[in-house]
Fold:
Amino acid sequence: SAVISQKPSRDICQRGTSLTIQCQVDSQVTMMFWYRQQPGQSLTLIATANQGSEATYESGFVIDKFPISRPNLTFSTLTVSNMSPEDSSIYLCSVRRSGSGFTDTQYFGPGTRLTVL
Amino acid sequence: DAKTTQPPSMDCAEGRAANLPCNHSTISGNEYVYWYRQIHSQGPQYIIHGLKNNETNEMASLIITEDRKSSTLILPHATLRDTAVYYCIVRVGNYGQNFVFGPGTRLSVLP
Structure:
């Protein structure tokens, strides 16, 4: 498994401001992921962040809105820029670890609950 | 798009077995079935995964039909703490496809 922590755990922000969410993993991982979970909805992948390369964004998500940093193999940040109430969601960090039989498994952090007023 | 179909909600009595079904009729030969759950306001938790054989761990059992078009997650003795949304995900098992989460099944364990 993997131990993943996120900061902050929750925040209330004003419209037009930005928030940076930190994700720390207990050991080195190649691939880190950021997800969004809007109220009452399932998880949606925002982007994949590999150390030493640009993040890869999913359709509907852009770097200007959700810039990501990946300075080393245990840490990543996601910034939610120029926030609006529609950005109110839970943001989740995730990593993959190899498992049995040449498979891998994805593990998730506790999430950051963001409310934008 | 999610490749699985799950009932939106189920109830189970505390202490009884909870059997959560998942249909994945278009599963490919190299795709695994993964199960996760999300307890309210927490990050998803990995439960179990399998290819074609039945699997069991300390949390649950996974039963996959012989044609692999459906599977069942079994929580043998459900407790109130098992109340959560359960997600069934189909993907290639190694560093390839993303994990795509559908709406899942909301399991309520009742006292």
